[in-house]
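Board notes (copied after class):
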Amino acid sequence: MEFNPPIKERETEDLLEIVCFPNSWQLEAVEQAKTELNKRGISLEEQLQWLEKYNWYLKVELRGEKRKRALMRYNPVELILMFFQLPGTILWDWNLKREGYLRMHKQWLRVIALSLFFYACIFLSIFTQKSKSDEAWLKEIQEQDISEWEKSYYGEVRDSTIKKKDSR
């Protein structure tokens, strides 16, 4: 089977990667890489040394990535959007701490707490003001003098009790 680029034309480091990590490659590619390494005079001991060196570089890179992730944080625009999109904020990013984003995880928790407090205050103020405004509205209605309106709508109205007394 021909690979693109062909196994024979690849660099020694690429061949070592193919041989040391065979699960990522097709079996035929691994066999061709082993054959090519033997042709180039790379022994099994040198392959193991390369693998140790490669693993050491990966560990160093991973440590650096973890440090970088621990210091990353959200920018203010992202925090504001998270604040107003509370349900989505709660559903997202549950794995930030596990992935090493420590500062972002703390910011995420703070935004959720602040958002919940903010929305709770809004709902409480709405419900308390509604009952107060209803009570004030009813009180205003009861105190309203509508005698002028009655006169303009019904005209001069005499009390029916007074008429009856006069007619006797």
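Comment from the instructor: The mean pLDDT is 81. The longest helix spans residues 102-143.
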